[in-house]
Amino acid sequence: MPPLFFHKPTSPYGFLCQWHCAPFTDNATAATFSSAEQYMMYRKAALFNDSGSQAAILRTHEPRKQKSLGRKVQGFDADKWDEVKLAVVEQGNLLRFSQNPSLRAELLATGGRELVEASPFDRVWGIGFGVHEALSVKREEWGQNLLGEALMRVRERLGREERKELEKEERGEGDREGEEE
């Protein structure tokens, strides 16, 4: 099966992009986020105790501005961020896809295909190539594709949860809240 390439929110499979607008809430922070990008930058600022950046990031719903603010986080330590960034992005996307049923269905509909962020400008979260260039170079030349990796982990987890729920229903053990005993 060929990889599924995505990049911008307006491109095919744009719902996979960090910038895609799909509000969700993180109960741990009691904050509502407009996108996974906002969540990522907010958590980055929180990691380095930059409450000013956290507040500014929450005030804007423009992913480009959120990213810009995230690049200016006070006290930033690349090594410390590198230790947690994948988990942060995975958690943000788990929240986003869990709380938006139509997006969850779209993610699960990608099946087992490899998800690849075809960003020609990002070799960490993406592969450092656009779709056409990616198809004409060896895979060894691709970047890390951490966003694709995080999304595939989220898809696997949500798929497992869905299968467990279906199995419960088949056994007659579904949610019985509200039933008389």
- Our Rg estimate from Cα atoms comes to 18 Å
Number of helices: 7
Alpha-carbon distance between the termini? Answer: 49 Å
CATH class: Mainly Alpha
CATH topology: Tetracycline Repressor, domain 2
CATH superfamily: YbiA-like
> What portion of the residues fall into strands of 2 or more residues?
5-15%
Q: What is the ordering of alpha helices and beta strands?
A: EEEHHHHHEHH
What shape does the CA trace take?
Answer: globular
Low-confidence stretches: none
InterPro entries: NADAR, YbiA-like_sf
Biased composition (Basic and acidic residues): 162-175
Organism: Aplosporella prunicola CBS 121167
Protein name: NADAR domain-containing protein
Describe this structure in words.
- There is one protein chain.
- This protein is mainly alpha-helical.
- Helix content is 50%, strand content 7%.
- Strands 1-4 form a two-stranded parallel sheet. Strands 2-3 form a two-stranded antiparallel ribbon.
- The chain has one domain (4-169): Tetracycline Repressor, domain 2 (Orthogonal Bundle), CATH 1.10.357.40.
Quick structural summary:
The protein is mainly alpha-helical and 181 residues long. The protein has 7 helices and 4 strands.
Layout of helices and strands, plus pairs?
Elements: E1 4-6, E2 24-26, E3 31-33, H1 36-47, H2 51-59, H3 63-70, H4 78-99, H5 101-108, E4 115-117, H6 131-136, H7 146-170
Parallel strand pairs: 1-4
Antiparallel strand pairs: 2-3
Biased composition (Basic and acidic residues): 162-175
InterPro entries: NADAR (IPR012816), YbiA-like_sf (IPR037238)
Domain NADAR: 5-158
